[in-house]
Write a structure and sequence with these properties.
Low-confidence stretches of chain A: none
Largest interface: A-B, 49 and 55 residues
CATH topology of chain A: Rossmann fold
Radius of gyration of chain A: 19 Å
Order of helices and strands of chain B: HEEEEEEEEEEE
Radius of gyration of chain B: 19 Å
Number of helices of chain B: 1
CATH class of chain A: Alpha Beta
Largest sheet of chain B: 8 strands, antiparallel, barrel
Helix content of chain B: under 10%
Distance between the termini of chain B: 59 Å
Number of strands of chain B: 11
Helix content of chain A: 40-55%
Structural class of chain B: mainly beta
Shape of chain B: elongated
Low-confidence stretches of chain B: none
Structural class of chain A: alpha/beta
Oligomer: heterodimer
Mean pLDDT of chain B: 93
Number of helices of chain A: 9
Strand order of the largest sheet of chain A: 2-1-3-4-5-6
Mean pLDDT of chain A: 89
Distance between the termini of chain A: 21 Å
Number of strands of chain A: 6
Order of helices and strands of chain A: EHEHHHEHEHEHEHH
Largest sheet of chain A: 6 strands, parallel
Number of domains of chain B: 1
Number of domains of chain A: 1
Strand order of the largest sheet of chain B: 1-2-4-5-6-8-9-11
Chain lengths: 266, 176
């Protein structure tokens, strides 16, 4: 099983904190539009795919949803409380090492390996909380001796990673993810581009979206060891928006699109 | 009515901003010695409350699969080279991660970059492997390295928005 560099590329997206269910998710279409808008007249063959796990989250939270229905005094309160539980529940699921989180990771890994079996070069785009799952799964795959021979990208189930508005710098996620899995001796490099807006509260953990300064979020994982094999870039990006609107603005940002183009074509 | 006006006022204060898109174009050579257009762009958002945000600066070269992203670092606004993807022009060895491969000489902070003359020095050239797409005229080759800096004439287009707006970037140069 190896990747064929001549085959069309697959951009696999993993979403973040959501309300609603799997049917509401269209991030694969958003990334397809974004990449197409930055191609110019280059005939790049690619497809996008989305790993959906919101139904898994919803199942895990269903008993609490029922409880909220009993507690909420009116329909509006019920909707608001339900959405709040949906969002907070997603974070708790990812933060705590629950069986649901393990199921989500396994599902995502299976999806990557499915694309690998087809021989298509796969590039992962992970938004928000999805970046935590992507981080875990990619490191797990690097650890597995069947994949990621440092000198042969054909053995890599994932060719590169883009994270958007990732909370990976927050201590609640960082403390369980202290270092990256090293690729070992060799010359090829695995690329991780971390895009974030300085006012994105999910990245900074600052509720009111105060402007974040400094650069090191993903780059804190860099080491001096030549065996690490990761190229990591924090990319503060101007989304033109502020606070939570910045958190959902990456999907249409041309600078992100150009970074994705550069990743996918090389 | 008073509450409504106060809410609108607060909303505008929190989200209102001036959006600037900066672009510049230049006819030059790529590292294969082919005449190519180079296009530079970045955006800046000046908010009514809070610090301005800008960048990254993107350099696109006609018929290139590479889009160089310039970040603000302690060494200024630079494109940081990557082992296996860039090398110092004229040298065969791979580079260390993060080495300065291109630099904007005019300013050291993204939010302070202005319209007008922008000087950019190129030091590296693209390295590629079997995963680098080479389709028709498209290759990874980008703007050629040279001793003298390139001089771009940067134009600014400004707009005002109440809720903020996604920057509208120029189309990549057509490859012909």
């Amino acid at each position: 099983m190896t990747v064929d560099p001549k085959k069309p590329r697959t951009v696999l997206i993993i979403h973040g904190v959501q309300t609603g269910d799997d049917n509401d998710l269209i991030q694969d279409q958003l990334i397809e539009q974004l990449l197409k808008s930055r191609l110019g007249n280059m005939p790049l063959q690619f497809k996008t795919d989305l790993y959906r796990y919101e139904n898994l989250n919803n199942q895990a939270q269903s008993k609490y949803q029922k409880l909220i229905k009993l507690i909420a005094a009116n329909p509006i309160g019920e909707v608001l409380a339900g959405n709040a539980l949906d969002l907070i529940g997603d974070v708790v699921t990812a933060r705590l090492d629950t069986s649901t989180a393990a199921q989500i990771r396994q599902g995502f890994k299976n999806k990557i390996l499915e694309i690998f079996t087809e021989g298509s070069p796969c590039y992962v785009v992970a938004h928000s909380l999805g970046s935590i799952y992507a981080f875990d799964v990619i490191n797990e795959l690097i650890k597995d001796k069947h994949y990621f021979d440092r000198n042969s990208r054909r053995t890599w189930p994932v060719q590169g990673l883009i994270t958007l508005g990732s909370p990976i710098g927050l201590s609640m996620f960082k403390k369980r993810r202290q270092k990256l899995q090293s690729l070992g001796e060799g010359t090829k490099m695995f690329r991780w581009l971390n895009y974030w807006d300085r006012t994105d509260p999910v990245v900074s953990g600052k509720l009111f979206g105060q402007t974040l300064s400094g650069f090191e979020i993903a780059e804190k994982y860099r080491t001096e060891s030549p065996d690490l094999g990761w190229v990591i870039r924090d990319r503060p990006v101007d989304t033109g928006k502020a606070w939570l609107m910045a958190h959902v603005a990456y999907w249409e940002n041309p600078m992100v699109g150009d970074g994705l183009f550069d990743l996918v074509t090389n | 009515m008073k509450n409504l006006l106060t809410s609108i006022y607060l909303l505008v204060l929190l989200n209102g901003c001036t959006l600037s898109m900066y672009t510049a174009e230049l006819d030059a050579l790529n590292s294969d010695g082919e005449p190519r257009k180079a296009l530079l762009y970045w955006s800046k958002t000046d908010r009514l409350i809070g610090a301005a945000k800008a960048g990254p600066v993107i350099l696109m070269t006609e018929c290139s699969t590479r889009r160089l992203s310039f970040d603000e670092t302690e060494s200024g606004i630079i494109y940081r080279g990557e082992p296996g993807r860039d090398r110092v022009a004229g040298q065969n060895e791979t580079i260390a991660d993060g080495i300065v491969c291109a630099k904007i000489e005019t300013q050291s902070k993204l939010t302070e970059l202005q319209a007008g003359e922008l000087m950019l020095t190129m030091l590296c050239e693209a390295v590629f492997d079997e995963f680098s797409i080479q389709e028709g005229l498209y290759t990874p080759a980008y703007l050629q390295a040279r001793e003298a800096p390139y001089r771009f004439d940067v134009r600014e287009s400004k707009s005002w928005s109440v809720f903020g707006e996604t920057p509208k970037a120029p189309e990549p140069p057509e490859c012909k």
